[in-house]
Amino acid sequence: MSDTILETAGLTREFRGFVAVNDVSLHVAAGTIHALIGPNGAGKTTCFNLLTKFLAPTRGSIRFKGRDITRMSPAAVARLGLVRSFQISAVFPHLSALENVRMALQRGRGASFDFWRSDRTLARYDDRARELLFDVGLTGYADTQAGELSYGRKRALEIATTLALEPEMMLLDEPTAGMTHEDVDRIVQLVRRIRGGRTILMVEHNLSVVEGLCDRITVLTRGRILAEGDYATVSAHPEVIAAYLGS
Ligand code: ADP
């Protein structure tokens, strides 16, 4: 059994009395790809917002690498190595793919821009940015304006800018949403390629992506954990089948 890297205890978020996330105790093992699935309105996005500190919990706690991050700022959490894709790294459409990644490298994990680095440092940023573009399959698009990239490639670029922050754990919010089959396959391969020793928690609607990619799955419905386990276990759960068919 691997070590837990991210853990919540009794995580709860209410919106004016409506309980969107209800007593969720989630354990994500280090080095795994873990999916958070569930019908619309199940509380997945709220959960992500709680984990990255964009929302404060009403009750409960969150630990990352053994540290209580419940009251930390989003920037402090990112500096610890828990980074949500697109969190800090919105793609700038008028900059090239390379410039976008270079900017993310310059900024680092929540640090402010430093425009006064030496030429040598800047050249290193460029080398690293090219490596990251290679990792996400965008080698041929370094000089293309981000706004001109296809939707699938934009998502790949967003992942590259997130990787620039060297996250130990990445949160991916529906990485394949709205993609063509071809782009979905590309993202699946990309996630496999970038996982390295990283932990990835993703919200994903496409169950074949979840099946092909994820080691462990947590199913949420109406804010609560309904089932947990590997794909075979979770997909055989009668209430999971009902929740999906009934949604
Ligand atoms: P999911 O991502 O699984 O579709 P969400 O986390 O977006 O679910 O939403 C869970 C529930 O919480 C929904 O019923 C949604 O309407 C409600 N909700 C989410 N954010 C807010 C908010 N800011 N104010 C009020 N209700 C909210």
UniProtKB/TrEMBL annotation:
Domain ABC transporter: 6-247
Record keywords, A-Z: ATP-binding, Nucleotide-binding, Transport
Highest taxon in the source lineage: Bacteria
InterPro entries assigned to the protein according to its UniProt record, in alphabetical order: AAA+_ATPase, ABC_AA/LPS_Transport, ABC_transporter-like_ATP-bd, BCA_ABC_TP_C, P-loop_NTPase
GO cellular component: a single term: plasma membrane
A GO molecular-function descriptor: ATP hydrolysis activity
Record-linked PANTHER family: ABC TRANSPORTER ATP-BINDING PROTEIN, CONSERVED COMPONENT OF ABC TRANSPORTER FOR NATURAL AMINO ACIDS-RELATED
UniProt protein name: ABC transporter
Organism: Acidisphaera rubrifaciens HS-AP3
